[in-house]
Amino acid sequence: MGKRLARGPDGAPAPRKRQKVVHEAPTSEDVHTSRQLQQLLAFTQDPARARHGLQSFKLFLDELLGSNAADAERHRILRDYLQATRPAAAAAANDDDDNDNDATNTVFLPDVMQTWSYGAQTNNDNLMSAVPVVLALLLKLLGRSLDTVAVGLGICRTLLQKRQQDLIARNLSADKGKSFIIAPTLRMLREVVGFDGGAVARPLFRARMSTLKSLARNMGIVHMGDDAEDPKRPSTRTHAVLFFLSCLRFLHPEAKKELLSQRDIVAALTRDVKQDPPYLVRELLDGLRTHVLLDDKLPREAKTGLLTASTLTRLAALYQYRLDAAEEGNDDDGTRPVADMAHEFLMAACTNPSCGVLRQDSGFYPREVDPNALIPPAELDDLGLEAVVWMNKYKQEVPVRNYTLANFLPNLRPWSSVNQSELITAVFRVAPELVAHYFLANKSFTFEPKLTATWIGYAAFVFKTAALPLPECFGHHGGYPQLPPPTSIVIDNILPPPVNQKALSRSLASPSNLIAFFATRIMVVAIEKLDAAVKMHLDPSHANQTVWAEAARRLVDAFCQRSPGIQDMINAYRAIPEGDVLHREAASRLLRLCYEVLPQVALMAKFDVSPFLETSLARLSRAEAQDPRDFVMGLHELKNLLAMAGYSPGMRWFSGAAGGSDPQSLSPFTRLLKVCVEAPEGVELSTMREVLGFVAAEQQLVVDTTAAAAAAAAAAAAAAADNNNNNNNNNKPHKKKMHRGLFALLEALQVLRRSHPDSAAQIWPFLDNCLTRCANAPVKYVERMHELAREALEARGGDRSDAVASPLALAMLEQLPFAAARDKEQPVLKALGRFLPLFLGLSATAGESRWLLELVFSKMLAHLADSKGRLAKAGVPGGLKFEFHPLPLEIAAEGQKSSPAIASPEQKEARPAGDSAPLLDASALEQALDVPDALAVDHSALVKWASKTVDELIDEGYLVSLMSLLASEHASIRKESLVNVLKAAARIQQSEHDEREQVWLLLSELAETAREVNIDAGPLPSHLVAFACHALQVLRDPLSPLYAKVNTFLTRGPMWSPTRLPLVDEVLGEDPGTAPDAYYAQLAWLLGYLLDGLRTPRDLELLHRKRAAKGPVLERVLAVGGGNPFLRQTLRAQVLRLVYRATKVEGGSTTLTTRFGIANWLEERRAACEAKGDTDEAAVCEGLKRRVWETCERERVQGWSRGGLALEA
What we know:
Elements lengths: L33 H8 L5 H19 L6 H14 L14 H6 L4 H12 L3 H18 L6 H11 L2 H11 L6 H15 L7 H6 L1 H4 L3 H4 L17 H15 L2 H8 L2 H9 L6 H16 L6 H7 L2 H8 L21 H14 L25 H7 L19 H6 L9 H13 L2 H9 L11 H14 L20 H8 L6 H8 L4 H25 L7 H18 L3 H9 L6 H17 L1 H4 L7 H12 L6 H20 L20 H11 L7 H13 L6 H13 L22 H16 L1 H6 L1 H13 L1 H19 L10 H15 L4 H20 L4 H11 L9 H5 L14 H8 L8 H5 L12 H8 L11 H4 L5 H6 L2 H7 L6 H19 L6 H18 L8 H15 L6 H8 L13 H5 L7 H17 L4 H8 L8 H11 L5 H16 L3 H9 L1 H15 L2 H17 L2 H8 L2 H5 L1
């Protein structure tokens, strides 16, 4: 049987090959009238004629949209045509988008719609393509004028009718090769959805089965060819993406949520984004950022569905986008690089919790961990951290909550792009849980030192990661939990796993300075971060202090195992070239941190810092010009070396002085002094001055005049052994900053250098010799000072027991004859003639004994070049002021006049005969009037109260201790105390205690007041805490005379005013004669809570604040204490204790003197007590009056009293 021949429908043989489709260009003609336009667009079954009419209409619309947009005649033709073809039902049609009957019965442009339908029936691709093109241009044109918007809306509704929906769906589902059909249809739909501000966007989305047909597939039809895509002829993907973005712009949130839930569309949106033209990528990023990320009305789950790990990875590929390279040289259009826009988008998406990607985590606590799990205390005491089963579990893998980011970050390349490194570190900052997970899951890159661009980029990324701050409370929300975080996670955040001991040791020993510098910087930030972590572990607010302390020790041990040895760091510092100032500063800072944070590691190596310190001082002391920036970095290195020298007991501060004029022969101490004097203006030198003061005090180069004055006062009072430990003395010596003698020495050298630079350069060898000798034998010069004092005592008489002079001045007096004996030392003597009077005068201003300094100077004159007697005539200058190093006010005041704290013999003789009250010293006065702080912080109350019964809580003071913590200076303590107060209130309310309701109301109002005051910003005012504690004692006793007042006060309102003292008016306003016992009991209670509530200047302000018709509270209390002859002695003592407590507050003595006339009040009380024969209370009043004078601002008080109080003192 032979093969059959293929037959056509008419019986003729059919061709064996597919016939070639030839696309003939359509013809066109110019449009001159609306009648002509109607004829051209009239329906016909002739495809060529239909194409001819559509092409003519297209060209007509192109001209209106293009250069001939202002052609009024053509616009008139179009309006006439639209009016002629407008259906009659449209005139009465409602413009509402949801009017389905109108949309069904009214058809705009019926001929064009019929032509489109005919093309679909006959499979005429040209007609199916031409109609959407014409409609898209027409809608674009109609949207430009308000007069034609109604017609445009009618066309849009016509397109959403069932018949046209089927045509749209057929066009959108055409073969992939027929982009000339798909692209115009998508363009038409974009015009429809955005027409008149999205007026028909809602019904268009309801018809999504047709309008969104094959949208995901069409997004994959990209531009083919080697040439770039022409913006005038966009690809099908471009039209599809722009249509999708238009939908996001104009749809309501619920519709957008459903649109973004289409996984195939969302996946196709970014699948080929790297090949898209630049303008499309910018539109995509801007549209998604504006209408998705920043849309607060869009639910979070909708954003999460869009921003998956794969979507973020595809967008991250835009970091290497290069198709916009041709636009980089053209900045006139204001376009931004695509890579920068992608970086901005990813930063917002990955770091903003409202964008749907970032989830709330628990910081260093993994997802499966409950850090507040209850573990028996006995088990914790026996096993420590081993009792926590998950403590050592997360060394290889860390479960996280941000799984999307955890899958996305490994796809980035931080070593090749600064922006990608910045993105990862920004994510680490807001999601700390990802740090350990990222490095544990990405072990492909090692930190082995190689001087390549990749290694440098990775090292920079590791440095940024290590420099990230630790999250508050290790990321746990609501304060510190019961248990510390796993040590492995904390150490991975401090030093990432790739940075191990071997890699760091090799990096520090690398011959490349750049590699060693990177390793040094990483170690610096890591140790600083370790220090912060250890301090967080040792925070006093932790409930389980022992467990947290053990975790801190484990953390330090883990860091030591991962970091290089101290000897490697020292060797690396020694190998740094002298000119590499940045590296030297970083390495010295690293060694300093080791001494401060890891002393157990630093002391393992024998490191003599003296040679390095001498080299640094010599470098800074060179006379040749230096770059100011290098000088500043050299100062920073010097500060680090000085700090290490302070930790090194073997530092030789006064070695190497040979007495020559060469600056290299000066001792390190003198070189450091020279650097401070010759440093440029504006350079911070506080650290070096502190070191100079510390060394000078240790070597007894200078004396502390404040300590000397205190010693004299102790000898006069015979009981001042504890005077230096009195925390309430406002005139404290400034030992931590610098001693007064060094203030004078530095000031004198600065002044001499400014006025006579040559003389300043001459005195350094002489000064170094004196400093060295004084440091080697300080006792010798102290004894010489006492000898001179005895000599003056024999010559002039009087009391010279308070003689104070610097041993350095005595050393200068001893060495001056030897300098004068040398013939070559005449320039030095001339310089000393300028320097010594200046130094001695400034020493007198600083508080040293002027008469003793004048005696020393008189002996110096025999060896100075003073042929005309000018120096002898001038003597030690007086009234000198400090310009370069201003003294504190109290030091300057003590230098200008003797302190009234020590009464001179003349003052004692001038005392009235009747003034027989014994003088109490400071310690006796403190013993008589000082009472312990009732609000002292007891952190154990946070734990102890939970195991006590309600009766024990109220009667044994546990509840008082818990409330007192609301006045703690630590915010975390206050927060935890507030939570426990509320728990205790709820527990008491549910108990069977007799006064449970009143106690619950007291605690609840206290908690509400704490919330209103915002204890996060500062402690709760002391008077409110004191009132609550004392009110609790009243509520325990229903027979108390204050029981009714306290309950009435509690029922007034839900919170207490922080600017009012509770129950003051109610107690002080009562008549003592009606019920004396009840009145004095209430007064004793009031004075007790006022005393406990006076702790800060803010508390004192409440006591002296004026109130209408009643006066300040303290004034009323003093009136009661001084004007009531029947007041009991215990209450009078309580008033004096209140005054004494006020003197301990900063500025309290000045306020008492200037606002309340406390000096006169105390004088009257003393006289009244002496009249009654009560010498003990009189002595207390006299001692309290003297304390007020000692602790007040004397200059202000003297000015206020015009010198009256100063004479009385």
